[in-house]
Amino acid sequence: MNRTEHFFHRFDLIGQFLLLLTAGFSGLAVLFSKKEFAILYFMLLFVIGCWQMLSAFIRGVGYGDSIKSTYFFAALSYCLLLTVFLSLIEMLAYRWEFPLALWFIGIVPSIAAIWYFRDCVQERSQNEQNDRIDLVPSTLPSLNLKKPLKKIRKKQALFRYL
Questions:
Q1: Of 67 and 131, which is predicted with more confidence?
Q2: With 0-12 CB in 10 A as exposed, 13-18 as middle and 19+ as buried, what is 29?
Q3: pLDDT, tens digit, 9 for 90 and up, residues 53-79
Q4: Burial (CB count <10 Å: 0-12, 13-18, 19+), residue 55
Q5: I want to staple 41 with a disulfide (CB 3.0 to 4.6 A). Which of 26, 33, 67, 83 is the partner?
Q6: Which residues, at least 6 apart from 61, have a Cβ–Cβ distance to it below 8 Å?
Q7: In angstroms, what CA-CA distances link 73 with 56, 78, 96, 115?
Q8: Helices (DSSP H) in the chain: which residue ranges?
Q9: What is the pTM of this model?
Q10: CA–CA gap between residue 130 and residue 120 (Å, rounded)
Q11: At residue 142, what are phi and psi to the nearest 5 degrees?
């Protein structure tokens, strides 16, 4: 992995982590205190989605990662289908509108964001293991220690008699 790719992966992970952390705290605030934080939560989900789609596009198309390109096209398809289904949800009775919108706009993207972040972290740790320098190469020349040991024993034998 070259330096640009290394920097991008690190920058991407830090950005995703901070966005997910902020979204997690605002999601907890929605659950346990004021519902006014819901707009912040949904706005953060939108920003996380944009960030991750751009990241998946760069990693998938730019760096040739097939999993990230699959995620990008799946997320893009989801966004396109969501625009169609949101118009259908509005046609349903009012009592189903909010739970369905919450599911398709809140819960599914949250799960996808966490999965993508976890996949990026696993890829990063795998790349770090592959980039480590092997201090003891597996192809060492065979060391013949018998000759030096024989010389040492001969010298020890000489000094014994002195």
A1: 67
A2: middle
A3: 999 999 988 888 889 999 999 999 998
A4: buried
A5: 26
A6: 69, 72
A7: 9, 8, 29, 15
A8: 3-32, 38-57, 66-91, 94-102, 108-131, 146-160
A9: 0.69
A10: 15
A11: -70, 130
Q: Which amino acid does the sequence have at 119? A: D
Hey, what amino acid is at 87? S
Measured CA distances, 112 to 4, 22, 78, 99, 106 (Å): 26, 16, 11, 18, 10
The amino acid present at 147, given as its one-letter code, is K
Type of residue at 64: G
40 and 92 Cβ atoms separated by less than 8 Å: no
Distances in Å between the alpha carbon of 133 and those of 72, 122, 136, 137, 142?
A: 33, 19, 9, 9, 21
pLDDT at 32: 86
Mean pLDDT for the chain overall? 80
